[in-house]
Amino acid sequence: MISYARQTQEEQPEAPPPVEEHIAPAPRVSVQAFCETVETAAAVQSAGEDRRLGKAHLKIQMGGMMAAIEAYRSAPTPNVIVLESDARSDLLTGLDQLATVCDAGTRVVVIGRINDVMLYRELVRRGVSDYVLAPVGAIDVVRSICNLFSAPEAKAVGRIIAVVGAKGGVGASTISHNVAWAIARDLAMDAVVADLDLAFGTAGLDYNQDPPQGIADAVFSPDRVDTAFVDRLLSKCTDHLSLLAAPATLDRVYDFGTDAFDAVFDTLRATMPCIVLDIPHQWSGWTKRALIGADDILIVAAPDLANLRNTKNLFDLLKAARPNDRPPLYCLNQVGIPKRPEIAATEFAKAIESQPVVSIPFEPQTFGAAANNGQMIAEISANHKSIEMFLQIAQRLTGRSETKKQKSSLLSPLIEKLRGK
Fold this sequence. Notes:
Layout: E1 30-35, H1 38-48, E2 57-62, H2 64-71, E3 80-84, H3 88-99, E4 107-112, H4 117-125, E5 130-133, H5 138-147, E6 159-165, H6 172-185, E7 191-195, H7 203-206, H8 215-219, H9 227-233, E8 235-236, E9 241-244, H10 262-271, E10 274-279, H11 285-293, E11 296-301, H12 305-321, E12 329-335, H13 345-352, E13 359-361, H14 364-373, H15 377-380, H16 385-398, H17 412-420
Parallel strand pairs: 1-2, 1-3, 3-4, 4-5, 6-10, 6-11, 7-9, 7-10, 11-12, 12-13
Antiparallel strand pairs: 8-9
């Protein structure tokens, strides 16, 4: 009847999700829920509005198990059925009846109030994909449905990190490129930078790359987008870092529909553990969709009033649109420009109700030399203080610690010679 399950919950209900929990989005599937209580129906309805179920088609009905059995006597079953039931005997009997009308391949998630090992084993034996203890919240429903399509043996779905400037000219692209460099070099994660500013993008210049193809080829040929096609468009910067470059030409206009980049992002998720989106400072359907659909968001702001207002507006919108995600992160950049009145980081934190990840000082000589040479800050000055800040941002966005490097000592050369002998 139904495909088999995931990890067991044999002893205790699942703990609340940690802040850094990463739940991969569900694909385009149909989900039908049959609830017995209005509280569960409300939780499922709220889950359907979560970005990770944005592609799923969700329908909610009341009536529980009996309503599901009756509905599928004359209609095909969806990809996923969510059933609420609080009675043990009726649940097992109802599942046996449901099996007679359920299509092969349909997955069933049961929401119940009985925390019992033997019941769970009976449910697994009948092919139930997941059992969630009530009462449930929206994130419990999201996690259960999404995890059905990200089996442990399957390749992990990549994490999308979106970086956007609160205002033009605040250095968001520079920050995104250096953070991606830190993710690849210091955290040893395979990463790709997608430059979404097709007309004026600077990622190719910053990484000293001039590929003949890039992201425009994918966006303007959505029917051709697959893993092999996107792989040919990538330009390799280092062993762990690739670039999906913008053409940075004005021979055409770049007016996109809201879902223009969906195929590109889905394909990158399937092939790369980490995708860094360099989002231009503009407000359109597709930029809003890219931000809301990202797993983590970094807003780059300069310490002035316009940046404070825009950062606050972005924070409020994204927190409302992503109620089950952690809030966006933000950093202050170009701090300490001589003779420029600035708003202190404490005032930013008070207005936004969140501390900046880091405050990057104004260093025009170092940053300017890096930009003109097509290099990262770490390549220009290995001990520059901003390198540690980029690593801090990378760790916060990915939830990972720095890859430990073996420490060398003064005796290392001598030891190596002795080993050679």
